[in-house]
Design goal:
The structure holds two protein chains of two kinds. By secondary structure, chain A is an alpha+beta fold. Chain A is 21% helix and 13% strand. A three-stranded antiparallel β-sheet of chain A has the order 2-1-3. In chain A, strands 4-5 form a two-stranded parallel sheet. The termini of chain A are far apart. Chain B is mainly alpha-helical. Classes of the chains: A alpha+beta, B mainly alpha.
């Protein structure tokens, strides 16, 4: 195609588009929160072969996640001294989940070691 | 324990799998724990397999099902399950070829959109580029700028009537000028954005890697609105 637009036309359109842009802050608050889902109630990711929603088999399974506001994830009150962890914080340390409350035979190589829950 | 590669074993498995999706075909030598014939039990299992796959297709193709009606969709899905059983254990990809069974182009496009929408849900995660990234580009660099599509973003050209059907099904506003739908999943929710013909042409060009100056040279294009639609949908991953 030989036809192209002028710089002025493009710059004007970008300015117009900025005015039409939707604010992003409001929808950015939700995160993937690991280790807080009740059995069968996770949103996604419950280990190899069972990569999707509703497949976790253990309450608070460490490699399953639920989508929720970040604040709620960090302040989640769970039994036995458990805490939730956001996907971003786990990823920053090179982990893909929490090493607790796992179905038998789960490969925990990439899961973050955490204290054993007391209940 | 017999080896998994025992040819006799494989022949048994092939017969079993073949009978699973074929109504009323018996499986030779199938017996229950007490050595009695297990044909009745197998019939129950066969029905469960077919039913679960029909249900899965009904979930993926919800608007198509609502348009066709329960009975007609069920017949279509059952035929699909019998003639093209899943080739992968991953259920969300199942049904990719179901749209080919619909002769009506409106229904076929609707089904194609619905399947693509489910694939977008499972595409790789990536943080989409915001409008501020585009605003930050120096004006003289805009003509040669390329916009790299987000991994979940896909452009689906469609019959306008199919877009209307989908919009009505999900309770979204009518888009009478739309000739394509942009599917995107910037974070957790899949978005379907109807695009008018000039915007769709520009988007197709950008997704093919054409620079902005070329891709945006389309008659009748409202470039400002088109760029806002792409960025608001989170369909762009990076600027290059």
């Amino acid at each position: 195609m030989s036809k192209t637009l002028t710089i002025a036309a493009l710059a004007g359109a970008v300015a117009a588009a900025s005015a039409l842009a939707a604010p992003t802050a409001a929808q950015a608050a939700n995160v993937k929160c690991f280790g807080v889902s009740l059995a069968g109630d996770n949103d996604c990711a419950a280990g190899p072969g069972t990569t999707c929603a509703g497949t976790s088999t253990i309450d608070y399974q460490g490699n399953a996640w639920t989508v929720m506001p970040e604040e709620e994830c960090l302040n989640a009150k769970l039994p036995g001294g458990r805490t939730g962890a956001t996907m971003a914080s786990l990823k920053a340390e090179g982990f893909e989940g929490l090493d607790r409350d796992l179905p038998e035979g789960t490969d925990a190589a990439k899961l973050k070691p955490v204290p054993e829950p007391t209940a | 324990m017999p080896s998994r590669r025992d040819p006799a074993d494989l022949a048994d498995q092939a017969a079993f799998i073949g009978a699973l999706t074929a109504p009323r075909v018996p499986v030779e030598g199938l017996h229950n724990g007490r050595g009695r014939p297990a044909a009745d039990r197998f019939a129950v299992y066969r029905n469960n397999v077919a039913h679960s796959l029909v249900e899965a297709l009904g979930t993926t193709f919800a608007a198509t099902k609502a348009t066709l009606g329960e009975d007609q969709f069920r017949a279509l899905a059952l035929t699909h399950v019998r003639e093209e059983p899943p080739s992968s254990p991953v259920l969300f990809t199942y049904g990719a070829t179901l749209p080919n069974r619909l002769a009506d182009p409106v229904l076929r496009d609707l089904a194609l959109l619905e399947h693509a929408r489910v694939q977008a849900f499972h595409a790789a995660d990536a943080e989409p580029a915001g409008m501020e990234a585009l605003s930050a580009v120096a004006p003289e660099e805009l003509p040669a700028l390329t916009l790299c599509p987000h991994p979940a973003a896909k452009l689906i050209p469609m019959e306008p009537a199919a877009i209307a059907r989908f919009q009505a099904h999900v309770g979204a506003a009518e888009a009478p000028d739309a000739t394509a739908c942009l599917i995107s999943r910037p974070r957790f929710d899949v978005l379907v954005t109807p695009l008018d013909a000039p915007t769709a042409t520009m988007t197709a060009g950008l997704f093919d890697g054409a620079p902005l100056g070329e891709a945006a040279a389309v008659d009748g294009l409202d470039l400002g609105a088109a760029l806002a639609a792409l960025f608001n949908a989170g369909a762009i991953k990076a600027l290059g």
